Each structure stands twice: as C-alpha cells, then as structure tokens.
Amino acid sequence: MDVTDHAEELASDLGVDKEEVTADLRNLLEYSVPLDEAKQSVRRKHGGGGGGSGPTPSSVDVAEITTDHGNVTVTVRVLSVGTRTIRYQGDEITIREGELADESGRISYTAWQDFGFEPGDSLTIGNAGVREWDGRPELNLNESTTVAVADGTVAVDHEIGGDRKLIDLAAGDRGRNVEVRVLEVGSKTISGRDGETEITEGVLGDETAKLPFTDWQPRPEITSGADVRIEDVYLREFRGVPSINLTEFSTVTPLPDPVEVAEDAPRLSVADAVDSGGMFDVEVVGNVLEVRDGSGLIERCPECGRVVQGGQCRSHGAVDAEDDLRVKAILDDGTDTVTVVLDDELTAEVYGGGLEDALAAATEAMNKEVVADAIAETLVGRAYRVRGNLSVDDYGANLDAETFEIATDDPADAARAALAEVAE
Ligand SMILES: [Zn+2]
Asked: In whole angstroms, how large is the CA radius of gyration of the chain?
C-alpha cells in the first residue's frame, strides 16, 4: 500500500476529500512522522475520533496524559531545552525539544516556535497537542499553544538541566551538556542535500564511558586530546549505539582542567547490556555456548564485504569471493546471551593461525568446516572477557569484539554480582 492507498482508505472512512487527506498525510510523512501516527493525526484533524479537541482543554497531571488526549493544559517545570533545525515542507525550521515534568512524571515535547523558556522555568502550558512518539505520548507546542509563568515553583523529582555523564546518555536525548576529552577525531566528506559537506567524527570520553560523536558543523575546538564542555547536543542511534550529535546550536568551550577518562569499559551483565539497546565500548564476561554457522573460513563479496554463500552475493550476484576469517560465538553469563563477533585478527588468535593456515587445513581435509570445528573446540565451554561495541536490533544482540580474552574470574560470580547490584 502506498500513501495514496492509505489516503483513499482514510478519506472514505472520514467522508472527506481525498486530495486534502493525501496532502495532509504527505506533509506529516515528509517530516518523518511514522505512518500510523500520521494517519491517527489526520483522523483527529478531520474529527474521526482519537480524542477531543475542545477550545479549553482541562488541566491534567503529566502522568495522566495518554495518546487519547487531543489537547491538554499542564503546569510543569522545564527539565531540558535542545535546539535543532529540521527541514519541513521545504523550509528550514528551528525547533526546541526536551523534557517537561511535574510531581507525577515527565514527558518529552517539541516546540515549533521559540517560546523563550529555559531549564528550571515553571510554566503553565495551555492547549498543547498530544501526539505519539516512539510509543509514548509527547507534547506538541505550536501556534495555538499558550505558555505562561506558573504561580510558584513546580516541584519535581527529576534532574533539571542537560548536564549528564556519558554513561547516562541514550538515543533520543535532547539538549544535553557533556564535559569530555576528545579521544579520536577525523574529518569526512559526505554528500548531503546541499552538495558535498565536511563533517567531523570521532570518540569522546569521560570517567564513565566513551561515545562516538558527529559534528555536523566542524569547529576548531574539537581537536584530539582537547578537554571541552559541549552544550546542547542530541543523541541518535548510529550503527546500533548511541551517538552524540553537535549541531549549529551546540557550543564548545575549552575546559581549564583535564577531564578524567575511564581506562576500562563499564562491565555489565549481558542482560543489562542488551537492555540498554546498544552500547559503545562495554565489557561482558560469559561462557561460550556455541560457535555459530558462518564462522571460521568464510567468503566475502569484494564489492560490499558481505559474507557470500557459493560465490553469490545478495546484492552483486556471482562474484569472485575473497577468503576471510571470522567467528560468531554465543556468549552466556546466566542473565542473557549475546553473539560475539571476532574479526580476522582475533579469529587468527583463537584459531592459532592465519588465513593461509586455515586454507591449508581446509585443503588437506577437503572441508572448510574443519576451521570452525577447531575454533569451537577451543572456545566452547570456556569463559571469556569481551570488550567491544554492542548493537541490538530485531535480529538480536551483536558484540563486535575489540578484545577477547580468557576470563580469570568466574562468569557466574560476575553475573550474580551484576544481578545483586541491580536488586539493590
Ligand atoms: Zn556484494
């Protein structure tokens, strides 16, 4: 079904003009509103249910807001304000995003104009739209919304302001401030909508963690080894891990004192690591249960690097495949499992030989599987400490190993310790 089909269905449901519904739907999709939400919003606009939209919505507690509310009035404290420019219907619009809270709970918001409020302000916000974002209600502050200073200070249990340690950042966060050391930095040319653009990428660290970053407007203060305070960044998921994004509104201030950087990666139970939804530089300890298919001596497409079977790439058809070494091992620490992926170098270490040795062994046995079998014999049933980048998607959790070492401590103990920490 394409947009027109959805529009047709909606138009006939609502008994309104199809062209109008199509235009509304396209507008919403253009600014990346998910389809289901866009349909719901069009339905609401044309009076097809999904909540009332009376002129004076009643005052509600934040915790009571559901996506069934059309519009609400809330009295809240501003927790954070992030600024970002997005393209909407061909125009560049500067939006503010962040979180609001009252005693009952907190909610994220998007403001389509600058209402001038700052973190810590207590406000009464009238006629804010409610939309669904990521499965949760979010407030939409637009031209029909009123913002006034509240009578008295709204007490909240949440942290006010955007200052955070790296370990506490998650994809979707807006208006965050960090104090970090620039650990790695490099520039890259990308083709954007306005032609070729230079961006900066790298890794930032503080005493709690490390995270990758992208500076879309490269600035000179971001150099290798620099200690800086960066204000107003947002986080998005990139290759399965949270990534810090600097925009034209982010500010970078050199810090007088060096920022302490964690040598070690945070050690988590597999369950906690997987629950985080993806982590850059994390350490887990567990037993290898199994070496999966697609391990040992494998073949890759020379064009895209994907693993091919029988010389056939899914994207490039018949190719002159290149031999490579890899391991995909299932690691279990008693809380959950994760697939650990070893590159050619780490695979050579656990195999005890490089690509030439593996090819010779396969030729002698007239069977490629002998390489994976030998690796399985070494790994299965033994405990390993793995450090690397964890990505989690619908197909499972993958930990791209940077280091892979025999664990000297018992993983069951480590898992119990991690569980006990959670239970406290
Ligand atoms: Zn290919």
From this structure: 26
